From TrEMBL:
<comment type="similarity">
    <text>Belongs to the beta-lactamase family.</text>
</comment>
<dbReference type="GO" id="GO:0016787">
    <property type="term" value="F:hydrolase activity"/>
</dbReference>
<keyword id="KW-0378">Hydrolase</keyword>
<protein>
    <submittedName>
        <fullName>Class A beta-lactamase-related serine hydrolase</fullName>
    </submittedName>
</protein>
<dbReference type="InterPro" id="IPR001466">
    <property type="entry name" value="Beta-lactam-related"/>
</dbReference>
<dbReference type="InterPro" id="IPR051478">
    <property type="entry name" value="Beta-lactamase-like_AB/R"/>
</dbReference>
<dbReference type="Pfam" id="PF00144">
    <property type="entry name" value="Beta-lactamase"/>
</dbReference>
<dbReference type="InterPro" id="IPR012338">
    <property type="entry name" value="Beta-lactam/transpept-like"/>
</dbReference>
<feature type="domain" description="Beta-lactamase-related">
    <location>
        <begin position="71"/>
        <end position="331"/>
    </location>
</feature>
Amino acid sequence: MTIAAAVMAVVGFAVGFWLRPGAGAVTPDSPVSGDEELGQMAVGHVPSVGVHALSIAAVTPEGQRTATVGAPLDGTFEIGSITKGVTGLLYADMVERGEVRPETRLGDLLDLGDADAADITLEELSQQRSGLPRLGGGLGFFARTALDTLLARNPYAETPDEVVDQVRAAKVGDKEPVYSNLGYAVLGHALASAAGTTYPELVAERIAEPLGLSSFTVPLSPDQLADDAVQGRDRAGRAQQAWADEGFAPAGGIRASAADMATLAQGLLDQTAPGVAALDPQADFGDGLQIGAAWFTEKVGGRTVTWHNGGTGGFRSWFGMDREHGVAVYLAGATTVDLDEIGFALLRDVARS
């Protein structure tokens, strides 16, 4: 096959892929599982098209509430970069345990040789000011990820060793605030190395098991998805491959149910969760944001909100807390529609209800 023919074949496949029928969107008439009032409150903020299932959790001083729309109540959603917040909890917990220090060098934990990145500290990684780029891998990596995204495949299907290779080859820039998936991926693997385990096992042992999060997992491949895994979809409703891999898992690989996220939120609000110090702001991040270990804090409508969001090929998510008043909201959708504004609005409404 000639190069031109191969290109035409790929283009033809992509066109057919993008024109295939999608799933229906959530509407005010969609059935709610769990807390009906909470589900309808969330649906009231959702755009009329583009969101195909919802998972909602809320915590107030009165207790926990959960709901799903267009999915089973125990269905798991990809929480995307909220996983970075979990990696931040692991970092803060390991600092508290004395297993690592903020000034611990990346090269002390991973085989980076004399690479520039070897001198990056864990604190710099945790506060997104390591100097690492958003992604690594060069032009070949970007070309592959672009094609994977076009074909609804996971563009981050790397191994931990491949992530370390990318960090070893990366040019380290100024230590200014720059949101880096690569930085958080390697932070998670460095923490796992310090603990003598893998990142998925570290999440299980330090977060999921102590808090009793039964569906809070890091699947390593689509084949490992449980029966309760909700299908991710784009705005048009087309199915997207699960982002299940180990390499970039610390930056965005966790799946969880609404009940899991409610329990995690409760632990963060009452300060019984491991690594809760990660929530505390430590540095300015620009645009009115401060950052702790992954978690952002800002003033919104007179409230101080600590939050993180997430996005994968078929999911968007948002998790925010008004720690002063003991209120938290988690929202995830099978969609590529941004949910940040909806999350902030839902947090406000839950606090008022």
